[in-house]
Amino acid sequence: MDFQQGLITTIHEYGINSDSLSELCLGLKKRPTAILIPCLFDEFKRPALANIRDILKNLEGLNQLVIALSAKTVDEVKEAKDFFSSMPFPVHVQWTNGPAVIELLKAQEKNGLELLGTPGKGWAVWQGIGVATRSSDVVALFDADIRTFSNSYPARMLQPLLDPSHGISYVKAFYSRLSLETYALQGRATRLFVSPLLTSLEQLLGHGAFLRYLQAFRYPLAGEFAFTRDLGMNLRIPCDWGLEIGLLSEVFRNVRISRIAQVDLGLFDHKHKEIGVTQKEGLQKMCTEILSSVLRGLMEHQAQTLTNSQLSTLEVLYRRVGEDRVKQFGLDSAVNQIPYDRHNEELSVQKFGNLLKPAILNFRESPVKQQLPCWARVLACENRLQDDLAEAGIEDMSKSEKSNKTFLLK
User: Which SS3 state, helix, strand or coil, does residue 369 take?
Assistant: First the structure.
């Protein structure tokens, strides 16, 4: 929709090239590439994942598809494996919370490694990176609930990385979060919390390098990204809702900004989260953890923390910027003739504003948060752990299948 460039190289969607798939398949044959999908078993009951599977079938030359699955039983894991049985490339279903995986990772405590992260996307991503980077030079991650998934998503995310001459190590998605049913604006956590927060912090703390970097991303909370193996091996992984900001912090720490790109994926829709009644629920809980991740990044990269007087100023600044954004989005929606609930948007800004002070005070009391160590650190201690983890991720299912065969033979 524009051609502007900034601190982060931006790849726009001009709507011209409709045949990105054939070019992608050529690139996949030149550089080993994996796609990683972290998911809960519940996603197999929804239509989004079936559509993603059918689209991915077109990727001739893909080295591997890794499904980082949280499941309750062996039968669920087997069902997931059957779900992807028709793919024309290898599929590894990693049972992230299987007994063999838990036992293996718990055993690393003897080496001082804390690898049993809080169950969730972060822990699944960490395991998936470990499995995928064994044999792939490039990895792209997509969530399992994307309702608008199309051929252009993997094509546009991967192409900047498949040709090493571009010099890109990390690609981040951005998009227009619109409801498929009503076309109303979604993405409140980004629009009404993170964006006004970063603007307010910049006014308060100045034009620091890390804040400038975060503001250069058009959708910093996008869960879709791709990376090279050498970068993936050096990313520490947060285990809470601060995952996306935490990963951006890790990328800032590990690569030059000239090696980062963001890609427009166009219209995008997936599951929506309610704002929550209390600050420990829904989007309020999510934004509390995102805020902690931003503050931790400021400490790490700008050596800055908020004083009590700055905290009061931030509360005032955030509410003003947030209210201004509500007016801006209202006008944007009106001209595009899409529905806009200004009252609920204003209420969201109020609730997000109310969580700032308690969240920041809690963060200052305990600023250090568990992060899963990068794989380069892990392998320096246990150089076979990637392979052992991959084997443990399928071990319980293999035992079950062998047991069933024995029973049938009897």
Answer: coil
pLDDT exceeds 70 at position 407: no
With cut-offs at 50, 70 and 90, classify the pLDDT of residue 410: very low
Convert the pLDDT of each residue in 19-29 to its tens digit: 688 899 999 99
pLDDT at 317 over 50: yes
Contact 198, 294 (CB under 8 A): yes
Q: Does the model's pTM come out above 0.85?
A: yes
Closest C-alpha to 120, from 90, 99, 143: 143
Look at residue 170 and give its three-state secondary structure. strand
Going by pLDDT thresholds of 50, 70 and 90, the confidence category of residue 404 is: low
- Residue 16 contacts by C-beta under 8 Å, 6 or more apart in sequence? none
Mean pLDDT of all residues in 202-224:
96
Token duo for residue 243? 């995952």
Q: Is 3 helix (H, G, I), strand (E, B) or coil?
A: coil
Separation of alpha carbons 140 and 255, rounded Å:
17
Please tell me the distance from the alpha carbon of residue 171 to that of residue 93, in angstroms, as a whole number: 24
Count the neighbouring beta carbons within 10 Å of the beta carbon of residue 361: 12
- Residue whose entry in the numeric block shows the structure tokens 């989007």: 283
DSSP 3-state of 140: strand
From residue 213, how far is each of 9, 170, 190, 290, 378 by CA, in Å?
A: 12, 14, 16, 16, 28
Taking alpha carbons only, the member of 149, 163, 168 closest to residue 35 is 149
Closest CA to 62 of 39, 90, 37, 84: 90
What is the β-pairing status of strands 170-177 and 225-228? antiparallel
Of 349, 232, 346, 356, the closest CA to residue 290 belongs to: 356
CB distance 217 to 248 below 8 Å: yes
User: Do residues 270 and 147 touch, judged by C-beta distance below 8 A?
Assistant: yes
CB atoms within 10 A of CB 144: 22
| Pairing of β 225-228 and β 91-95 | unpaired
Neighbouring C-alpha atoms within 13 Å toward the C-beta of 194: 27
Cα angle vertex 44, ends 38, 48, to 5°?
80
Paired strand residues for 176: 267
